[in-house]
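Quick one: structure for this chain?
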Amino acid sequence: MAEEKKPAETAKAVKEKKGKKNVAFKKIGSFFKELKSEVSKIVWPSAKTVVNNTVTVLVVAAICSVFIGIIDWIFKTGVALLMELGQ
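Got it. Here's what it folds into:
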């Protein structure tokens, strides 16, 4: 059985392959142009705003941890009392 040879690629097929590669590079270039445009629209907060927000987060976290600690102590004490009454 003789092996069949594939016909050589036509000039049109070669041109289409190159065209697809060019489209891919154009899409990548377009992506980075749009990315640069979007990044330039970012408004960064001032240092004072960052400090104020950080302090607010720390204060709220401290208040929440104290609240959870108090609730935990109440439940722990309540369970200990129930255990003593059960004996």
